[in-house]
User: What shape does this take?
Amino acid sequence: MNVSYYIAKRYLISRRKHNIANVISRISVCGICLAAFALLCTLSVFNGFQNLVKSMFTNFDPQIKITASDTKFFEEDSALISKLQNLDCIQGVSCTIQDQVLISFNSLQQIITLKGVDGQFAQITGINNILLGPGEFMLRDQITDYIILGAGLAQALQTGAVTSEPYTIYAPKPGVRPSTINPANALNSRTLYTPGVLFAVNQAPYDNQYALAHIEVVQNLLGRENKLSAIEIRLTQGASVKKAIRQIKDITGDQFLVADQYTQQHDVFRVMKVEKLISYLFVILILLIALFNIVSSIIMLIIEKKEDMKTLSKMGTGIKSIANIFGFYSIMESLAGCIGGMVIATIIILLQQNLGFIPLGTDGEFIVQAYPVHLKITDILIVLSTVLAVSLISLYIIRWIVYKFFRENLCH
Assistant: This one.
C-alpha cells in the first residue's frame, strides 16, 4: 500500500482532539456535502422542468418535422411520403400546411396562424390529451368542416368551446393585389364551426395564436392546392431520434430541413440550458468556498503534524511523499462530502419523483402540483467530476504549501 495514502487515511478516520483545525475540516466537509446535494438537486429539477415542457410541446409538435430549406411551401410528393412511411423507425406521417389568416367572430377580429392537418395528426401528436370541452377532436364530417381554437385565442374572441355562431376565416389570394374599390375580391373566405372543443398547450404562442382545421380547407383557403408547409413524423417506441434523422435526410436530401423537438423549440430549450448553466456555476462557487476551507484546515493540520513530518523526513521520506499525504487527505475529505451529499440528494429526488411531497404551489395555480424532478446517471457523473476537478485545484495549492513549509522548516 502507498505509504502517503495509508497515513492520509489514518488522519481521516482517526479520532483527534476537537481543536479548531478539526472543526473547520468537518464544517468544510459538510459544505461540500451541501454543495453536492444542491448541485444534483438543481440539475434534477431542471431535467424535470425540461421534460415537462417537452411533454407539453409533444402534445402539439411532432417528434420530427420536415420543412423545405428555401421555400415556405413545397409540392406534396406522395412518393416521398411513401418512402418515409416504409422506414422501420417511423410509426406515423402527417402532412400539414399553415399560414397567417384573419379570423372574425361576431365583431371581433384577430390575426392568427391557421394550421391545416390531415387525419393522421391525432395519431402522431397528443392533441387528444389537451382538449377542453364536451366535444371531440373532429375537423370534418359529412355535413360541414370545423375549426378548433387555442384556449387563449377563444378567450380573446370572447367565445368558448361550444358556440352556435360560426367563425369566418379570411386569407389573401396568392398573386392578387387588393383593390381600393372592392378589397374583398383579393381575399378568400371560409365559414367554419366548432366541434365543441378547444386545445390548451399551456404555452402562449400556441394557445393565443393557433387554430386547427382540415388540411384541404386550409389549402383551398390559402390558394395552395397540393402544397404543404411540413411533413410531421412520429417515431416508433424506443427508436433513436438521431438515427431516424440520418435515415430521413438520406431520403429527403439537402432541399429539406429535418428538425427534432429541441430544434423546433430551440429558443425555449436554449433559455433553459442557460438557466441551468448559471445555476450550476453558482453552486460551483459554493463548492470552491468549501474546498478552500479544507485548504485552511489542512494548513492547520500541517502545523499540528510538524513533528511527525520531521520524523518521516529523517526516516528518508521525501518532500513529495509528505506533500502527497495532505493531498490524498484533501481529496478523501472532498469525496466523502461529495458522496454523502449525492446519496442524500438521490434519496430525496427519488422520493419526490414517486411521492411528490414537495408542492409547487396551491391547487390550480400551476400545471403540476409538485416540483418535477428527473434523476439522470449523467448528472451523478457530472457532480462527481465537478468535485474531483475542483479538488485538483486545492490539491495543487496544498502541494505548493507543503513544499514551501517543509523546505523552510525541515531543510534547516
